[in-house]
Amino acid sequence: MSSTVEEKAYHPQDAISATLKTTLITGAVGVFASSVQNTLQKRNYGPWGIVTKTGGTIALFASVGGAYQFARIASANLREKEDHWNALFGGFFGGAAIGMRARTFPAVLGYGVVVGTALSALEYTGGSLAGKGHADEADEFERRQKLRTNYRSPMAETVAELGEGRGIRGENYEERRRQRIKENYGIDVPASPQPAGP
C-alpha cells in the first residue's frame, strides 16, 4: 500500500546551541521588560534596580524561552518528526516555567497545559489563527509566479477604464485639451515645446 503523502526526511537539530541562543534572546527581552518595570517603580532604585529589584523578570523570560526551545527540539529529535506535538511539549515546559513563579503544583500544571495547548494549536493551524488554507504547494507556486509577472496595465487600458483627468492622461492629451478649450472658450492655447531628449 503506497502512501499519497511522502514523509520528509528529518534532520536532527542541535538542541543545546538553539536553547542557548533562544535563552539569550528571551533574556534580552526580559532585560527590556525589567528596565520598564524598574522605571515605573515609585521609589528610585537606580540603574542596578533592573537586576536587584526586578531581576526576576529577566530570569522568568530567559527560563521560559530556554525551556520551550529545549523541550521542542528534544521532542523533535526523539520522535524524528517536525509537527505540532513538539510545540505542545515545548509549550508545556515553557508554561511550567511560568507556573514555577507561583510555587504551587496546580499553577505549574495549569500554566503548562494552557501555554502548551495554545502553542500547539497555533502550530497546527500553520502559525495563523485563520488556518493553513486549502491551497497546495503547486497552487502556491503558481500564485506567486502570477504575482511576480503581474505588471502595470497599459495606459490605453487604464484610460479606457477610468477616463482622462485626475492625473490620468492618454496619448495626445495636450492636443485634445487645447482643442476643447478653443471650442468651449475661444481661447487659443499655445503648444508647449517638447523637452529636449538625450
UniProtKB/TrEMBL annotation:
Q: Sorted alphabetically, which keywords does the UniProt record give?
A: Membrane, Mitochondrion, Mitochondrion inner membrane, Transmembrane, Transmembrane helix
This protein is called: NADH-ubiquinone oxidoreductase 213 kDa subunit
A Pfam entry, by short name: Tim17
Which organism encodes this protein?
Helicocarpus griseus UAMH5409
Q: Which domain of life is it from?
A: Eukaryota
The lineage is: Eukaryota, Fungi, Dikarya, Ascomycota, Pezizomycotina
Basic and acidic residues bias located where? 163-185
Q: Mind naming one GO cellular-component term on file for this protein?
A: respiratory chain complex I
Q: What are the boundaries of the region Disordered? A: 162-198
